[in-house]
Amino acid sequence: MKPLLTVQNLRTYYFTEMGVVKAVDGVSFTLNRGESMGIAGESGCGKSTIGLSLMRLVRSGKIVEGQIMLDGDNLVEISERQFRYIRGKRISMVNQGAMGALNPVYTIGDQIVEAIMAHVKCSGAEALERTKELLRQVNVNASRAKSYPHELSGGMRQRAMIAMALACDPELLIADEPTTALDVVTQAQVINLIKELQTRLSISIILISHDLAILSQACSKIMIMYAGKVMELADVQDLFREPQHPYTKGLLSSCTDLEASRRTLTGIPGKPPSLVDPPAGCRFHPRCACTQTICKTIEPTLVEVLPRHYAACHILGSFTEDNCSGDNV
Amino acid sequence: METMFKAVDLTKLFPLKKKGAFKKRQFVHAVDSINFEVKTGETFGIVGESGCGKTTLGRLMLRLIEPTSGRIFFKDRDINSLSRGEMKKFRNRVQIIFQDPFSSLDPVKNILNIVTEPLRVHRISKKASILKETARETLEAVELPTSENFMLKRPSELSGGERQRVGIARAIILRPEFIVADEPVSMLDASVKAEIISLMTKLKQKAGLTYVFITHEMSVAYNICDRIAVMYAGKMVELGSAEQVIRAPLHPYTRLLIQAVPPLHPDDKWGNKMAEGEVPYFTELPGGCRFHPRCPQVQSICKMEEPNLKEVASGHYVACHKM
């Protein structure tokens, strides 16, 4: 099957007074039709910048290298004018703060109608009909089309945002931390909604979150990022059963989990590096418990360590948590 | 175990703006006649969704706000009837850690000034050498660098985790007995979160602290708390040991909260039975049990009568008619 989206060697840099911030530095992945991929990592690892790069919405920075192929079209090369037919139509995005993303002086119905009429030739009445259908699809009462954003609860606003993103039947939906500002119960409802829509409408989804538990429930494959680089990429079952990269293992052991018994959380000592001047070699080596000499000089590449399971680490397979006695310990 | 805090019929109502000159004023029932005790040396968790009153309860315990009615005792003294001098001593013994490490630190002060401010406010010392020495000890306790260079940095130069450590250092520098931690880890990344939780556990063991840990994350509460209280719409609906509340929840709301937490490992069955509905905005409370409009097991009595918190097993309290 030909993938819907192929990203190759994507590099997105921000140009600041402090220097060049290499937020995304050589990221490659593919996404099939109907597949859902999760991007995880700590704040500042570049996961949101990937989303923005796909939408070509990177402000004060630019894509300096790489290809983003959406079904044969290279999104990096086409003109801004052409891209308007893609943004919101073929690729759409749901952001974190639904209150900030919605216009407070228009009803949500008006805003969804606007999104439809920007791309589809139809009458206002038809667009309104479609809006009501979309709202029903995300389990919001269609009469809510007449409500202003402030009259809705956080969960309902996020649903309205999802309805808007689905307005033109996109092929790819990017959801950047869609549940971060929501309460647990509402969060569970929104994740389930995304899951359900994905199977029902068979769209491809990229879900960006710092919360591995959310991704594990909603995605079929997961990409772990650290300091602008991909550390590990695997099917969700494989990643959680047999995490390969020390960073992934660190992340998993930092997560609180209700299913597991109470345990001491280990965490990962240190903090993410500056992306202006990242460490040489493996970017994770200053925080890694298993650092060897090679990690400090040579950057590891993403290799297939198990079938369809990729990781970027020099010492894969040659260590376990117990025998780990690197230079940092 | 000794009782450190005891709340008796504690109530806090926040008045809302009148909708019209002849309309009755409405109130938000943030905390509504709550009774509980916090024992010396334990970590007492308060969980619930936003707007359930958990932060208000924490603030009442420190007398940052005055209750509408009811009383709250710290070591058998009603904290709302303390004299000025006694109040000052009380403030010395209790502290708070805030959620947002970005806005709870003064951006124009350096780390040394932020951490030692309590010493100056409480007139413990003004001498620069003593202040610095105490700051150094405290920064070491929270595992931050103690170099001169670090102490002269401003909050904007620190990462989120470092800032939260500064917040903790400021809270422990007076060597308090009791700390209210209001969502101290909810804005942090997973790896940093784990470190802050283990730091707080270490400090507790070392200094014999008592914590009230307020959080909306069930898994965090389960990890750090000895006992957990679940709040809904200003009421405590369940209270018990962490094991009792998480492993054998009795109140339908607690069950809903636990179901809503995504497990770390992929699980196809998760969330299939997730209930619809959201926390209502509580100005006009539903009659009877406040949870009844969302409750899957609602009976006619739930709509008429408000259930009280009853002990159903040793140390396990539930407010539900089904019990």
List the helices and strands and how they pair.
The complex is a heterodimer of chains A (329) and B (323).
Chain A: E1 5-16, E2 19-31, E3 36-40, H1 47-55, E4 61-70, E5 73-74, H2 80-83, E6 91-94, H3 98-101, H4 108-119, H5 124-137, H6 154-165, E7 172-176, H7 184-201, E8 204-208, H8 212-218, E9 221-226, E10 229-235, H9 236-241, H10 246-254, H11 293-297, E11 303-306, E12 309-311
Parallel strand pairs in A: 3-8, 3-9, 6-7, 7-8
Antiparallel strand pairs in A: 1-2, 1-4, 4-5, 9-10, 10-12, 11-12
Chain B: E1 3-15, E2 27-39, E3 43-47, H1 54-61, E4 69-74, E5 77-78, H2 84-93, E6 94-97, H3 111-121, H4 128-141, H5 148-151, H6 160-172, E7 178-182, H7 190-207, E8 210-215, H8 218-224, E9 227-232, E10 235-241, H9 242-247, H10 252-260, H11 300-304, E11 310-313, E12 316-318
Parallel strand pairs in B: 3-8, 3-9, 6-7, 7-8
Antiparallel strand pairs in B: 1-2, 1-4, 4-5, 9-10, 10-12, 11-12
Helix pairs in contact in B: 3-4, 3-6, 4-6, 6-7
What would your notes on this structure say?
The complex is a heterodimer of chains A (329) and B (323). By secondary structure, chain A is α/β, with parallel strands linked by helices. Chain A has a domain at 91-169. Helix content of chain A is 30%, strand content 23%. Chain A contains 11 helices and 12 strands. In chain A, the strands form 2 sheets. Chain A has an 8-stranded mixed sheet with strand order 6-7-8-3-9-10-12-11, sandwiched between helices. In chain A, strands 2-1-4-5 form a 4-stranded antiparallel sheet, covered by helices on one side. Chain A is globular and about 65 Å long. In chain A, 47% of the residues are buried. Chain B is an alpha/beta fold and 323 residues long. Helix content of chain B is 33%, strand content 23%. Chain B contains 11 helices and 12 strands. Chain B has an 8-stranded mixed sheet, with helices on both faces. In chain B, a hairpin with a 2-residue loop joins strand 4 (69-74) and strand 5. The two termini of chain B are 28 Å apart. The mean pLDDT of chain B is 90.
